Structures are given as structure tokens and as C-alpha cells.
Amino acid sequence: MTRTLFSLPANLAPDEASPEWMNKGDNAWQLTAATLVGLQSIPGLLILYGGSVKKKWAVNSAFMVLYAFACVLVCWVLWGYRLSFGDKMIPFLGKPNGALDGEYLIQPAFLGSFPNATMVFFQGVFAAITLVLIAGALLGRMNFYAWMLFVPLWLTFSYTISAFSIWYPDGFLAKMGLIDYSGGYVIHLSSGVAGFTAAYWVGPRLTQDRERFPPNNILLMLAGAGLLWMGWTGFNGGDPYVVSTDASLAVLNTHVCTATSLLTWLALDLVFFKKPSVIGAVQGMITGLVCITPAAGVVQGWAAILMGLCSGSIPWFTMMVVHKRSELLQKVDDTMAVLHTHAIAGSLGGILSGLLAVPKLSALFYGAPLRYIGLFYGLAYGRAGAGLRQIGVQLLGILFVVALNIVSTSIICLLVQLIVPLRMSEEDMEIGDEAAHGEEAYAIWGDEEEKVDTKYRGSASKDKLPASRAAGQVEMT
């Protein structure tokens, strides 16, 4: 028997820059997915927020997003990543360290067939969008200097704890078997609770802003919403850390659930308010994206439809009915309703994951065929105890994230308040962007500005004329 030897094509053969342990396809997709997630914030949520608020807050709202994204990425590589995904220090936090050393960055990541550098970037844009979502609850009144302090503090003392506990293999909730496919708990429940808590401490907008806060550009808002929706392909499709059938399923489930949720919210608006609301459709889109996130790759397509029906109706009910009847909810000014669109929708997704997770699909993602079984499948397969345990773990995860973010966010707000005011002054809130940044989104010329501009143009044109003609014009005037 003879053996035939052959060599791989040069572009596939391993070398020092592409070692045997690295899968080029997985690495390429992971970098692409990370970029899609980054586009959800910059420019996605930047222009969604900028278009959704009153004209006088367009610059401030967009700038809160831009600052948060930049600040998080720097803090992430300096200490945040290793706190979230580094060697265990305690059951809910890693050892503090940087993620900038070249030798470390080219080593294999803790999961997946790609280097640490790819994982650091991928997880960094997830951390960044979480802070961006919190900003949605605070638009229209938070002191920008307070926001500059809040972002690194919350990243350090809240996000890292959730991420390590739930996503890192040594985290205590990860070991218990919590299902959070792509951030229903770590990102959406966290940001919803933290945003609502911070809004309580910051205080409300001016009365006239709360009563009337029309979007300054609905088309711009829709463009941002579209980037958010399409970017979710990377959000959920990138979390298997591999180009796989499970990643494909997660992407399809994401878009099916989102479309169903949008249509459900739209139908409820038509039935009860007699008009199809664009803003309502965007909210239904967001709740669908959020709800499917913890379950994207572990549920069947019909379950994605069911989750879309739930995410388009339950948050609608809490926002349109419960919110208006609750004194507490009325007291807290949550500008973009992140409590409903992220905290409630994220919790809903976590619970439905505990009901609808398919053992086979869970095994594809987690690699553990005897764990991660939804209650309905547990009952069907004679494993009711395992299904009940899964629901219990899902509920425990919700309680942990809620408690963590209420406590940590409150402490951070109180600490920041000792340094700078959390809320802008009444006078600055009357003015908006011009007072906060000395800039406006739209240059609207008044009579006085037009007179000054006309005088300036006249002076400039005289300077370009020959001296004799300029003098003659002066005499004529």
C-alpha cells in the first residue's frame, strides 16, 4: 500500500502568522461580527438617539454615544477585558490586568479558534453598546461631565461582574448552567435596570420636555434603527465563536423574531390607538431583538415566532398600561423607555429560554448534551426535574443582575454626585446643546444673525474690489 503525500495551498497552510490552532474562516467571521456590533453603536444608536430627541438635544444625545463608545474601548483594553474574561480571582470577577501585550494578544482566546486580539475587540464592542443603551434612559438632562465619570465606573464595577459571572466558563452562573446566548442578561437586562436606576438619581427632564418631546428627524431615527436591526446579525451570529450551523440558526431566529415583534406591536397600536406609529414600530423591533438574544441559537424557528409575539405584546402592555398606572414608573423619567424595551424584554427572553431551549441545539452551542434543557422539553422527555432546574437558574440570573445593577448603579451615581452634579442646571436644560457643547445640530439663522452675516459678506466683497470702486461704494452709501 502506497501513501500519496500532498501539501495544502499556500493560503491555507499554517505558518507563524496563521498557526494550526487558528481557523481563518472563524477568525474572519468573528472580526466581521464585531464590526457589525460596533456599527450598531457608531453610527446606529448615535443617529437613532440623535433623531429621536428634541432638536435642542440632538448633539448632546449623539455625543453621549460617541464618548461612551470611545471611553469603553480604552478602559476595556487597559483593565476591563481581563476583569471580565481573565483568570478567576473570585467567583464573579477575573484578575485585573491589561490586554495590550503583543504576546498575549496573539495567543488563543479562552474559547474559539482565533486569537485573544479578536476576542478582546468582539467583547469590547458588546461592552460599549451596553453603556450606550444606558445613555438612552438619561437623554435630555444628564450633566455631560457626570456621564464622563459614570461610564468607566459602571463598566468597571457592574458590567465586568455580570460578564464574568454569566459568560466566562469559571463564572458561578455559567457553572450553574444559565442560558444567555448573546447578552439578554449581561447587556439588555443590565442596561435596562442600570438606566432606570440612574434615571432615578439624575432626576427628570424639564416638565415641558417630558410632556412634549417630538423626534427632530424621524427618517434619521429609522436609519439608526435599521443599522441596529441589521447589525444584530453580528450580535447573535457571532456568539458561537465559530462559523457553524448554530450561528446560521441564531441569525435566522433573530430576524424572524424581530419582524414578528414589530408587526405585533404595530397591530396593537392599530387596535387601541387607531394609527400605525413609526416610533411604536421601532420599539417593537427593539423588543424583538432583545427578547431573542438570550435564546437565539437554542430554540426552533416556531419558538422564535412565539417569542416575537410575546416581545411585541408584553412590553407593549407594560409600557402603555402598567407604566401609566404606576406612580414609581411615572416618577422616574426613562427617556427612551429602556426599562421596557431592554430590562423587561431581556427578562422575558431569559424566561422563555428556560422554557423553549432544545437539548440538541443547546448541545451544539454549549457542548453539554445533558444540560440546558427547556422546561417544555424536560416534560416531554421525562426530565421534568432538569427543566424545572433550568427555569430556576434563569430566574436566579434575573435576580442577580437586577440586584447587582440597582446597588452598583446607585453607589456610582452617589459617588459621581460628590464630584460633579448629575443633572444639568435648569437654565442649561432650557437651552440644550448650545449650553452643553456650544454647538447645534441644525443652524437656524435668526434676524440678528442674518444681519451680521449680510454685513460680513458686504465687507468681504469690498475687500475684493479695487480701492477706487470700494471707495465709491462707500460714498454712495
Q: What integer value in Å does the Rg equal? A: 26 Å
The unreliable regions are: 446-450, 460-477
Helical fraction: over 70%
Number of helices: 21
Sketch the topology as an H/E string, one letter per element: HHEEHHHHHHHHHHHHHHHHHHH
Classified in CATH, the superfamily of the largest domain is Ammonium transporter AmtB like domains
Question: How many β-strand runs?
Answer: 2
Instruction: Tell me the span between the first and last alpha carbons.
Output: 107 Å
Spatial sequence of strands, sheet with the most strands: 1-2
Q: Can you offer a commentary on this structure?
A:
The chain is an all-alpha fold and 477 residues long. The chain folds into 2 domains: 24-434, Ammonium transporter AmtB like domains (Ammonium transporter fold); 445-476, no CATH class. It is built from 21 helices and 2 strands. It has a two-stranded antiparallel sheet. β1 (88-90) and β2 form a beta hairpin. The longest helix is centred in the last third of the chain and has 34 residues, at 384-417. It is globular. It comes from Theobroma cacao (Cacao). InterPro entries: Ammonium/urea_transptr, Ammonium_transpt, Ammonium_transpt_CS, NH4_transpt_AmtB-like_dom, RhesusRHD.
